[in-house]
Each structure stands twice: as C-alpha cells, then as structure tokens.
Amino acid sequence: MLGRKKQVRQAGGLAGGLAGGLARSGRGSQSKMLADAIALEMAQAQVVFEQLIALEAAYDARLGALYADDGIVIERTMDQGVVRRTREIPVARYRAALEASLAFSKKARERSFHSHILADHQGPGWVTVRSMRRSSQARQPAPYEVMLRREPDGEWRIARETATLLL
Question: What does the domain layout of the chain look like in residue ranges?
C-alpha cells in the first residue's frame, strides 16, 4: 500500500510528469494509462472528501453513507505531542450515534475548516486524504485523515477516519 504522494490539486500534473519520464524509457503507452488511472482515482477520492466536508457542514446524517460498512473511526487526543487517548469506533456504532452528534454540533454552531489538503495514492483502489482541520470550538488546527477505498460496487467509501484533538 505504498504510493507516491500527490497534492490533490496537482495530481494530473504529477501523473503527467511520471508518464513523460516513462515515455522516454520506451514504456509510454502503459505508463500513460497508469498515470491516467491514478489521476482518475485521485479525482474520484477527492469528490468523496468534498462530499464529506459538505455533508458535515450541512449537519446532514447522510454523511454516514460515505463510510464503508466495515470501516473504523479513530478519535485520538494528544497533549504536547503525546497521545493521551485513542478510541476506535466501528462504523455501525458511529452511524447509530451520528444523527444525535450532528444535532448537538448544529445547536453548538460547531464548524470545521480543512486546509493543507493532500492526497496520497496508496495503490489500486486506495487513496489517503490528509488535512489540517480546525474546529470552531478548538484552539488550534489538528491532523485529520481519511483512507478511502473503492468498493466492489465501484463507489468510493471511507474505510478509516482518524480525527485528532490537540489539547
């Protein structure tokens, strides 16, 4: 599951550069197809990440549908660079609590803002998207990560989400 790091907004340019280098080595058409496939997967994963942000901002419970049935949500609390607590929540349990959680967030007028969004193509059907997420209730931005995978039905879903709270 190792891959080349790519900034989402530059995925096409990086993939094109990869294809150009391989074309000079005589493997141009195969490398172009590979680069195009990677660029397509990166773009599809970015769409799901954008849906995640939009549904979260709208406090919409359809957010739960973006997660794979066997997925996991990891909540991590860090204090001065040291992990103080990690909690793993199966998606089934997360979905059950999601509506109440979104209602609470809406009432508290919580908002999240993502910056420094980077995507990493992990391999066929796997993309990790990382960002710095700043909550309107938090003092500072914190690392946020979702690992997306292409499901057998062709849809991209979140297989793992890791949200960090910095104290």
Answer: 5-166
**What does the mean pLDDT of the chain come to?**
84
Residue 27 pLDDT grade (very low, low, confident, very high; cuts 50, 70, 90): low
pLDDT digits (tens, 9 = 90+) for 102-139: 988 899 998 889 999 999 999 999 999 999 999 887 77
Q: Given the structure tokens 């954008």, which residue do they identify?
A: 50
pTM of the model: 0.78
- What is the predicted pLDDT for the residue at 138? 74
Class of domain 5-166: alpha beta
Distance between CA atoms of 17 and 21, rounded to whole angstroms? Answer: 6
Query: Which two structure tokens, joined as six digits, stand for 119?
Result: 């995507």
Residue with tokens 């739960």: 64
Residue 136: Cβ within 10 Å count: 11
CA distance 17 to 126: 21
